[in-house]
Specification:
By secondary structure, the protein is an alpha+beta fold. The protein is 34% helix and 26% strand. The longest helix has 22 residues, at 267-288. It is globular, with a radius of gyration of 20 Å.
């Protein structure tokens, strides 16, 4: 059924690094929801694999000493959605990964696999970008951490060097404390479909809930890699919570996004949807943060 040359099972992250160095052509396999399909299709036939699935130390969600949230790379989508720390601080991440495939995929698929495959449509990727996530990587030279925006180098390629593996994703306390967010996935069908475009927004309001202190917005399938729309973020920062501010924010995303034509959707359609989703996601984030969007003559509910 599967044309595999050899399978090596790592007992720890350090052991995985050793195996990867000993077998430089080997590929890491975790849940296998991507790799095994590719092997069965003949795209990676005859490969050597290093399985990290048995490394329990790379599972689970916990606090770091400085209050950052650490998500082990082997944590499944299902566990992320249900985790108390995720539900308390970044429930939008649980909502985003709950849109990945069906229940079987969410039970076996991991956050590390979803980010390491490098695709722009990954549901977790845009949300992690919006939360200024940090990627933790172990390799022969030890541990390093890089912003997730630097982890994605180009379409399908991430910053993993020879002998390295991703061990965790970290969301800094400063990135989630006081913020509320919302993710919207636009797809051709509701169930088990790749996003035509995905939009994740989070916002931090002033104490009186009348001013946007900060906002972050990130997209999937708006360019070759998941990306932030910094022009929109700058446009809304310090602005009143109002319909006008929301509309300026939504229009400003078009400065940064770089969608393309494909069989799923045209560039023009993706641009239209990107602006519409920005407005909807920001409105919902403001609502979750306790704000009310005002316009002349009353309230605006999006």
């Amino acid at each position: 059924m599967y044309d595999i040359k050899a399978l090596y099972e790592a007992e720890s992250a350090e052991d995985a690094v050793r195996l990867l160095m000993e077998h430089p052509k080997a590929q890491i396999i975790a849940g296998g929801s991507d790799v095994l399909v590719q092997i069965r299709e003949g795209k990676r036939a005859g490969m050597e694999l290093v399985s990290i699935y048995g490394i329990d130390a790379m599972r689970g969600v916990s606090y770091e000493e400085d209050g950052a949230i650490r998500i082990g790379s082997l944590t499944s989508f299902s566990h992320i959605t249900k985790d108390p720390l995720i539900q308390k601080h970044v429930p939008v991440l649980g909502e985003a990964v709950d849109m990945v495939g069906g229940p079987q995929i969410r039970n076996i698929g991991t956050i590390g696999g979803n980010t390491c495959n490098g695709v722009t449509s990954a549901d977790s990727a845009s949300t992690l970008h919006a939360w200024d996530a940090i990627v933790e990587i172990m390799g022969p030279d030890g541990m390093r951490r890089i912003p997730i925006c630097d982890f994605y180098r180009k379409a399908g390629v991430v910053d993993l060097r020879q002998g390295e593996l991703q061990t965790a994703i970290v969301i800094p306390k400063a990135a989630y404390e006081g913020y509320h967010g919302h993710y919207i996935k636009y797809a051709m069908r509701n169930a088990m479909d790749i996003a035509t475009i995905g939009c994740s927004v989070n916002v931090k309001l002033s104490g009186d809930k009348k001013t946007v202190e900060d906002a972050r917005i990130a997209y999937g399938v708006a360019g070759p890699v998941p990306m932030r729309a910094h022009s929109a973020e700058k446009a809304i920062q310090g602005q009143p919570v109002s319909k006008g501010s929301v509309q300026v924010f939504a229009k400003a995303v078009l400065v940064d996004i770089k969608p393309r034509d494909s069989w799923r959707a045209s560039k023009a359609f993706r641009q239209h949807i990107a602006a519409a989703l920005a407005e909807r996601a920001l409105c919902e984030s403001i609502r979750l943060a306790g704000g009310v969007i005002h316009q002349e003559g009353g309230e605006y509910h999006g």
